[in-house]
Amino acid sequence: MNISKQLICAALTWLALSAQAFQISSLSPQGEVARIRQVVVKFDEAAVNVGDPKAAAPVTLSCSDAQTNKGSGRWTNEREWVFDFEADLPPGIACTVQVRPGLKSAKGPEITGATSYKFNSGGPFVQSVRPYPDSQIDEEQFFTLQLNGPATLASLQANLWCAVDGLGERVPVRLIDGKDRAALLKSQGLDKAAEKSPLSIVTLACNRRLTPSAGVQLVYGKGVATPALHSAAAGVANSVEKRFNFKVREPFAANFNCERENAQSACLPIRPLSLNFNAPVTRKVAEGIALATGKDSFKPIFSKEDGDSESIVNSVSFQAVLPEQTQFTLNLPKDFKDASGRTLRNTESFPLKVATGAMPPLAKFAAAPFGIVERFAEPNGVAMLPVTLRNVEAALQVKGLQAGKVSDLQPKTDVDIIKWFAKVQQYDNYVVPRRMAVADVKGPLPKVIDPQNKADVQSRMMSLLQGQPGVKTLDLPKPAGNDPRPFEVVGIPLAPGFHV
Questions:
Q1: Sign of the CA dihedral 18, 106, 60, 148?
Q2: Tens digit of pLDDT for each residue in 91-129?
Q3: Of 362, 474, 462, which is closest to residue 409 (Cα–Cα)?
């Protein structure tokens, strides 16, 4: 019986001591961690009195490179102490955190449990890549890798490679140096950083011309190592493979575009004809493109935004008003190439035959979406809203209206005027949201034309006035004369006030 009592007393004593034990509940980082900027030590109970600014650090920190030890520590609360390094630890650094001897909690018990912890920054890792991952690249693209510290050229050459879709083998990389490296770094604003730590910035390319349109991975493999601290030691190598995805650009191509009344029609002569490129072309080369008839030749038009002859452009266009019902030949200059020197993939399409059709029917207000008509512009006259007409009498077929008719709504109150003013401004855009049109238009909306854009509808395909109360129908004055293609400005008489 006495032995049992002694065992019970011993167990209770051990439980009491365990309850009073003071120890570290967590410490980070530990082991190999790629990016280290901070050490955090947490205790299972208060280690200092609240608000004591003079409390000593609970641990000492020592690293393999004394220069990296720089930083400052602080108590964030009575149970947590934090040390911030001045900068991210470079690769190849090993550190030890040692608990200060005799460390006690605020209540008095001395610390128990583990008193020493280790961590290291591992081998070099990639902080950034240029061009950015998932972007489009050149067939002979130069890459720039910024590492968190220096890496040996030999380990980079041995452990970096390119993986190309459709190619069942690794493509080695070649390191870019000399003038090419200097020019590349200067263009990216990395020349100063490279001067300070040349082995931390890597410039390279895949050691073969890449296939257009192919997917490519730049692989940063395991084994990239830091330089050895002394001749008897080896550098620290990274242990994590990293892959960066890219897409090689498509072959250089040029595509002609123009607006048409329908898919079978010739180009509208009053809208620009354009040639678009999938890669930049120098303006000097683009200036050699010509749109020719049997007797005339038209050159592309350029804006101030297109810069000078040394600038690059992605398309060219020809004047907005061209001769109607005319056959043209679109000619490219000899040895037409993009800014990278690539020849045209679809060169067999040129010279390209194109044509303009007849001038389309036109009914156009002189001012839109807002204009002012002078009431007393003519003595004893009626205020007239000018409308330009061209070949419109036979073609004017507005859904729900007879040819030669125009609808007119005259809002009376300030609220209605402001509401309609805002609405007309919104619908003056080429497209409007379909959900907005559902609320504003009486009757069904036109069917979706573009499956890729079901959310919008062209404003010209709808009538805001159809079905609205108070709408009047006015006769549209007929153009005078027997010209088969009349072009005339006529006037619609209006009463004083606001009109839609």
A1: positive
A2: 989 999 999 999 999 888 999 999 999 999 999 999 999
A3: 474
Going through 57-159 in order, the beta strands assigned E by DSSP cover: 59-63, 71-77, 80-85, 94-99, 116-120, 126-130, 136-137, 142-147
| Sequence-distant (≥ 6) Cβ neighbours of residue 249 within 8 angstroms | 136, 137, 138, 139, 212, 213, 278, 279
Which contiguous run of DSSP H or E holds residue 279?
strand 273-282
Show the tokens assigned to 359. Answer: 């001038």
Q: Which two tokens stand for residue 388?
A: 């330009």
On the question of pLDDT at 399 being above 80, the answer is no
Are 203 and 185 a contacting pair, CB within 8 Å?
yes
The residue type at 465 = L
189-248 pLDDT tens trace: 999 999 999 999 999 999 999 999 999 999 999 999 999 865 545 789 998 899 999 999
Letter for the amino acid at 473? T
Residue 258 burial (C-beta neighbours within 10 Å; 0-12, 13-18, 19+): buried
**pLDDT above 60 (res 346):** yes
Count how many Cα atoms sit within 13 Å of the Cα of residue 490 in the half-sphere of its side chain. 19
Rounded CA-CA distance 40/51 in Å is 19
Residue 433, CA distances (Å) to 139, 445, 456 in order: 41, 12, 4
Q: List all residues 6 or more positions away from 166 whose beta carbon is below 8 Å from its beta carbon.
A: 211, 214
The answer to whether 287 and 299 are in contact (CB under 8 A) is: yes
Q: Cα separation of 55 and 40, whole Å?
A: 16
Tokens of 101: 């001897």
- Rounded to an integer, what distance in angstroms lies between the CA atom of residue 56 and that of residue 62? 17
Closest C-alpha among 198, 152, 204 to residue 175: 204
Q: For the chain, give the percent of residues with pLDDT over 90.
A: 58
Bridge partners for 260 per DSSP:
267
For CA atoms 224, 242, 95, 113, the dihedral sign is: negative
**Whole-angstrom distance, CA of residue 75 vs CA of residue 53:** 8
Percent helix, strand and coil across the chain, each rounded to 5?
Answer: 15, 35, 50
DSSP string, 188-200: TT-HHHHHH-GGG
Q: Is the pLDDT of residue 468 over 80?
A: yes
**Of the candidates 293, 310, 288, which has an alpha carbon nearest to the alpha carbon of residue 354?**
293
**364: three-class secondary structure by DSSP:** strand
Q: Is the pTM of this model over 0.70?
A: no
Q: Report CA dihedral (254, 260, 264, 269) to the nearest 10 degrees.
A: -90
